[in-house]
Design goal:
By secondary structure, the chain is of the alpha+beta class. The chain has one domain. 16% of the residues lie in helices and 22% in strands. It has a 5-stranded mixed beta sheet. The protein is globular, with a radius of gyration of 15 Å.
Length: 124
């Protein structure tokens, strides 16, 4: 069952990824290169070099899940990423941007209107 929602955090790995990689290797990229913990419940997005395949690694109740989408035509249009002297290891993205990528809509041409977004900080 597809259980990704707008309440999840999404991180795009900004470098081409071999789509033969599976759970353990993608988890290794998340830990060693992105500096994140796959068990935090965040979703991690990987795209191949020609931008025709996408994998999303997500820890759900009970274990890891990989969502894999391969396009029969066209390419994914990735958001513009500001590389800071080779130090960029992940790009936090929104659920809405992921949906636009999957639907083939150029995120750089979309105009985002101002909206109120609830704070994610807890007042403990």
């Amino acid at each position: 069952m597809f259980s990704l929602t707008s309440s999840d955090k999404f991180y795009l790995y900004p470098y081409p990824t071999d789509m033969r990689k599976s759970f353990y290797t993608l988890s290794g990229i998340v830990t060693n290169q992105m500096g994140k913990d796959v068990q935090d419940g965040d979703a991690f997005i990987f795209i191949n070099k020609p931008c025709t395949a996408m994998k999303i690694l997500h820890m759900e109740y009970g274990g890891l899940v990989i969502y894999h989408m391969r396009l029969s035509q066209g390419q994914f249009c990735l958001p513009e990423i500001d590389f800071q002297e080779g130090k960029t290891v992940s790009h936090e993205t929104l659920w809405s941007d992921l949906v636009l990528m999957v639907q083939g809509i150029d995120t750089q041409q979309v105009k985002h209107r101002k909206r109120w977004i609830p704070s994610t900080k807890s007042n403990v």
